[in-house]
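anyone else get weird line breaks when pasting these?? whatever heres mine. first is seq + tokens for prot A
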Amino acid sequence: MVNGGMAMLDMMSLAIFELVVTNGSFTQAAAHGYLTPPAVKRRIEELEKQIGVTLFLRTAQGVQLTAAGKLLHQQAPALINHSESLLKQVQHYTGSQAKVIRIGTSTLNPASRQSALWAEVSRQLPDYRFQFIPLETLNMGFPMLYQHLGEQVDLLVGPSGFQQTPSHIHFYQLATAKLTLTMCQTDALARQAVIQPDDLVGTKLALIPQYESNAIDQVYDYLAQAQIKFTAMAADAHYTIETFNRDILPNQPLLTLDCWPAILPGTVTRPLNLPVSIPYGIMAPLKLTPAMVKLTNVVQQIIDN
């Protein structure tokens, strides 16, 4: 509480509040926001504590808005939009201060992999400073992070099209990633240097469900045309370290990319010989501030050269 007892609304908590309202429960809100139910519950409890009122009635069927919650729900979209508009106006300020660019980094897609690129950008733009933000520390998951790109992080690095990547972002391709399988090192397939499509006959394979990714749909189509019969086990629509922990089981490999390191002890990664490749690069918001326009122009020039 500040300014004589006036509560300050946290916009991210407000966005999660709207997610709960839309989905009717903490569990469904977590699933759609790619968060955990405890994280959603914690943010709602923090929001209620901030403003000093109960927003939801908890029931066995889910949650219902209180009278105060209904009032907040009526105003929340306008508050969120105003906050985003104000943030963009502030970000347009390009005074003499160093321009800080926040780059999201994670176990799967570490920003350090592009250290040569960042070094060259720093050489050409000496007044810019990079701040690397661990995505695991944010109270926001995918796809919400794509939708709010520019708020907590300005740039993301990773594959585009393998997972649920929206079309309304700028993408700067750095490389092309190839399909791999990550599996327990005791699996029979682990003894092979390269996995052929025929090797998948009769196996269980963890991968993104059909119709959720254009690239993965190509995998389904190719295997169907080749009459490769396998059992598809649903993996997350967006991979995190938990996807690897949960979905790699004995004799159940996980469809992965060669840009991701073998991050779990006791697992190995093998190339999968399928004619499908995935663009890998930098993702930026569709609406760029002047500072971001200058940076992305330099990035594009480096890529072109």
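and prot B, same format (seq, then tokens)
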Amino acid sequence: MLSVARHDDDAPHKGISGFGRLKGSGGLAAACRVLPRVLLFAFWQQFYAYFSGDPFNSYVMTGITCPMPLPPNCSEGSHLVAGECVPWDRFNPSWSLSAKCADKDYVLETTARVNGLNGWIAAFFGLFAVFIAGNAMDTFGRKPMLMAFLSSNVFVKALLFASCFMSESGFFAVLFLQNLIEVACSAGVEPALNSMIADLTRGNEKLRSDGFAALGVMMHAADVIAFIAGYPVLKLHLTSYAWFWGPLTLVSLLAYAVFSFSPCSKLRETLHRDVVGDNGNEAEDGFSCSSFFKVFFSEIASGFRLICLDPFLAQFLILWAFTGQALGGSWNLAQFFLLKMGYEQANASMARPAWHLALMLGAALSSRIVRCFGARGSFAGSLLTMAVGFFLCGLGGPFPEHAELLFWLGTVVIGGIGNGVLATSFSAIISVRVSEQDQGKLFSSVIVVNTIVGLAVGQLWPQLFFDAKAVGWRKGAPWIASAVVFILMFMWLCVLCVLPCCNAKAGKAESDDGESSDEPATSDSEMSE
């Protein structure tokens, strides 16, 4: 029987009635009752990140410069008027998306490559941040990682505001610098949230799976709302984003105050006081540099040892990394794909909320799907589903008359639902393979492996497969390549599931039919200050 946490009527979180008063004996309702503060923070950070996501891409495009095209061969983004190439008005769907460059193909290709290179460089430095975050959250707690993220938001938005008044060289310098800071400080957010869920649901594997599903639903719901909220910003077709980044700087300050001091939303530490590290010391409240560096290198070694001692886990994390690169590689090009089909930039951005609605549906269904087919079966089915969806989208290259339908059906609907189930089943698979005190190292190791694989193959999609001028099969190459990767990862998973050496450590906790422990979960609102 699924056990849920009791609630204290005098608990400071009483104001979070939307979570704390949810009814139901299990599933997502039980997870929301146990995890109100974790889910509230997850909703906010996801909303804030994605609200500024599409405007950020448009902001990058405004900084792209190029010479004015020469007649009579005016490039897309300009048209011939009285023997001269004249840029289209910024409210015309054919606008080049930059007031400093009238060549739309050049703007799209340059932005895709700049974003790809920016992400590659930031991921390299973020790799070290993940090491620090994973080991720090297992030693000193989960909360400091989230507070560091809130603090970085203030500084990053202030930098972006200042860049609007800089020269082109200063613009690109800030572009790369702010990305380094943001990636480094956000590296610990997802591992910290996953570790908090593992902390608060220890001893109850079914509730833990429901907690990961609730986290997925909450984050995808925030994505949808954020993208819709950003639609009016894109509709303005701004040539300067100073007014956008300035107010967001103030909002970042307010968010820090809310999650630091507000009685109903103040973050609490979830790392239990009875959890001890390898050195036998209890987790500490504060962050001490001297004590941190004392255990840092030994913890890095233990993180790798944690993975390498489990043959299934080691290969599964690599499998997951390649899956993520194939997924992100194509999806990050979706907006450029739609812009080339003639979509106005605000309308093209609607693919993102539609995608996240599909992700939210997949995450909502994942709790029941995992219970019926097991975490591994759900993961394998999701890989096949995504392969079908992305291949359909790739067919839009040789069949341009159906490209729009194939994109929305294949990538957004089929691929999105499959990915929603995939993410939840992934967390359910890996979280039960390590002890509670190693959850932070585990989820940080996921990002480490993803980063290493991304450094190796992540640039294939924006730099090699994508070509704004391509036609035919070449135009659908990014999606077809992703579909091939999904099929290969499915075959790899099938081999892993039948190898005896990869199943020896699964144990009772990972059994599809196993019962969860009767040990009650602890609500995050019941944790002490």
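btw re prot B: Strands lie at 78-81, 84-87. Residues 313 and 430 are 7 Å apart (CA to CA).
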